[in-house]
Amino acid sequence: MNLTPYDFKTILAELIDENRLACRGVLRLCGVEFTDAIKTAQVTLGERSVLRVNLDFLRTHCSTPEHVKAVLLHEFLHVVLGHTRRFQTVSNALNLAADAVVNAIIHRTCGDAYSSFFNRLYAPSRGGLVDLLCSAADGDLKTSPTNQETLHLWIKLYNGEVSLDDVYQVVCAEGTTGLHEALKSGRLVFLGNHTGEGVRDLDLPPEISGQLDFAQSLLRTAGSIPGGALPGESLLIARSEDPALKAWRETVSRLLRRLATPDLRNRARHLEPQTSRLPVLHEGDRRATLQAGWST
Known about the structure:
Layout: H1 5-18, H2 24-27, E1 31-34, E2 41-44, E3 50-53, H3 55-61, H4 65-80, H5 83-86, H6 92-110, H7 112-122, H8 138-142, H9 148-158, H10 164-174, H11 177-185, H12 206-222, H13 243-260, H14 287-292
Parallel strand pairs: 1-3
Antiparallel strand pairs: 2-3
Helix pairs in contact: 1-4, 4-6, 4-7, 6-7, 6-10
């Protein structure tokens, strides 16, 4: 795929506008840096949040704009699910388990147009545990060198019935000798950065922390996170709510209650049905109040 920096930024803007998987709040805060210092792409969070991209990798492995978006969503989900903050160092088994969970979410939410990128990327190393990274049909997996336990896990994974911890346990039990060999030969490459670089400090700026919390809540509500409720909140980093954000929510809530509650002093003699546009309770869309016609 012929991809220039301008093309990439156009695709990124489309993804933010589409807001797939609630990515807008986080990705809009990131600057973009093109570099060959990393193999694929990664998101680093902090006072200066940056989306770092290797364009040569995207040109080689992406054939459509949706494939580029799949890579961006892959990195976004690692950040939102807390993978880059929970683990400072990771093993190959943990890398594979985290990638499998993220790829399955993208497939369930965005469909084949996006998840076909992972089938394309991992085609040279298909078989065994690597099949967990692909969204290939059940019939295809049955003809590949995959044992029944891995096949059973794949079915539950792509149905959204297992968490990262569940996948990691099975991967460890299966053994990772094949993964080591595939990585050493270059047949297998893990997307992004899973080492925690750039996100070691958990005291993130309030705007970023608030957007991460908001994205997590949307994914949980939509059922996108594997297994629904996360046992013991194992994939999330517990953080107290930012005081400024809490005060804003309480102020807006009081305003909405006042506007939506009938005024007992009103002497209107009859009721008429009316349609009103309510502002969105989200600090990232402050224009919603003006768009709705409310006066604060």
